């Protein structure tokens, strides 16, 4: 199967990308003027006297939106742009050069696929308007040999980017831990000790954005996602029952909480649904880095987040592997996944 970016530019949307009417974005949801500014947090203050303020801003933004943007985050602009250029060059390679990486096997450490299906139960094989380069990016020394040798700049630039974004994730999780009243190293170790995943999402310009989506509505599964969305809008977040667009900011990262974090915090922090719409004028590329747990570690509400009868644990313990299986079963549906792990307490009269 070809990547969408390798197809001749169609004048109309091919049938297999046309979603049922109830799954399509409304016309007014495709307008940029509906975009709102997510809270923008300057992480420079976290290094000094402003640490408590930054922590407060993260917690407030997380509870209100489940998303925020960070600037002055310590990842150099040339590192961000350098890897984005390398990834774009990968998608521009000839079809035959990319074909050897094409796979629908989810356990491959480096693969390319196109037009993910709308659901595991769909029989019509309707697909989303997205090409994706999915890889494991950290620890670098362990995983680099899986990465392609072409384009020539790819490995070196990915290595630099992965290391710096991993460090940013570690710093953010320490701030989040402090904001929750946990030890600042609470999230280190097995809770974030799995191989870090990366999705490089490429959305070609689309003949009819009103008929399709780039990615379905979903919540992320793991503890934290750090996204470089570039300068083209398309990401939308569910907020108070409506879809709002996330305005791009130069060299900022969009940060959002995953379902694992929601369950570890016993629901104090939530993983919010989001999706991607397409546009007819420009291609869009985003780079999502997903911080994952060790697959065999036990995950459940932190002891500090529960309190006997007044605030009992809402979720049972589970492993990282169980989380992945549940996510695949529910196709990323937030409520369906949480229900698989929810504890239903019986109230005594």
TrEMBL record:
Cofactor requirements of the protein: Fe cation
InterPro entries per the UniProt record, alphabetical: DIOX_N, IPNS-like_FE2OG_OXY, IPNS-like_sf, Oxoglu/Fe-dep_dioxygenase_dom, Plant_2OG-oxidoreductases
Keywords: Iron, Metal-binding, Oxidoreductase
Molecular function terms, GO-annotated: metal ion binding; oxidoreductase activity
Residues covered by the Fe2OG dioxygenase domain: 193-293
Keyword Iron in annotation: yes
PROSITE patterns: FE2OG_OXY
Family of this protein: Belongs to the iron/ascorbate-dependent oxidoreductase family.
Protein's UniProt name: Fe2OG dioxygenase domain-containing protein
Organism ancestry: Eukaryota, Viridiplantae, Streptophyta, Embryophyta, Tracheophyta
């Amino acid at each position: 199967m070809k990547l969408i970016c390798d197809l001749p530019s169609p004048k109309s949307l091919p049938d297999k990308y046309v979603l049922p009417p109830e799954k399509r974005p409304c016309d007014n949801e495709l307008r940029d003027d509906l975009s709102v500014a997510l809270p923008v947090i300057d992480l420079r203050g976290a290094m000094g006297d402003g640490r408590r303020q930054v922590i407060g801003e993260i917690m407030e933004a997380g509870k209100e939106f489940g998303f925020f943007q960070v600037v002055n985050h310590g990842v150099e602009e040339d590192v961000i742009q350098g890897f984005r250029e390398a990834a774009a060059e990968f998608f521009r390679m000839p079809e035959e050069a990319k074909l050897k990486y094409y796979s629908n096997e989810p356990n491959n450490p480096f693969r390319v696929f196109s037009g993910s299906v709308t659901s595991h139960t769909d029989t019509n094989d309707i697909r989303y308007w997205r090409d994706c380069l999915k890889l494991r990016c950290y620890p670098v020394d362990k995983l680099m040999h899986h990465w392609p040798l072409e384009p020539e700049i790819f490995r070196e630039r990915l290595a630099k980017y992965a290391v710096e974004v991993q460090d940013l994730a570690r710093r953010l999780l320490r701030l989040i831990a402090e904001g929750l009243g946990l030890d600042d190293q609470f999230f280190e170790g097995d809770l974030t000790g799995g191989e870090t995943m990366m999705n490089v999402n490429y959305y070609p310009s689309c003949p009819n954005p009103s008929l399709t989506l780039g990615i379905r509505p979903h919540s992320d599964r793991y503890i934290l996602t750090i996204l470089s969305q570039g300068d083209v809008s398309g990401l939308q977040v569910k907020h108070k029952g409506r879809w709002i667009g996330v305005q791009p900011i130069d060299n900022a990262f969009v940060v959002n909480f995953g379902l694992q974090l929601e369950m570890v915090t016993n629901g104090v922090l939530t993983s919010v649904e989001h999706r991607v719409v397409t546009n007819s004028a420009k291609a869009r590329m985003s780079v999502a880095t997903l911080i994952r747990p060790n697959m065999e570690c036990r995950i459940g509400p932190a002891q500090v987040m529960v309190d006997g009868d007044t605030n009992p644990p809402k979720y049972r313990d589970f492993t990282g592997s169980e989380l992945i299986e549940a996510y695949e079963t529910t196709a990323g549906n937030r409520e369906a996944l949480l229900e698989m792990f929810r504890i239903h307490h019986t109230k005594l009269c």
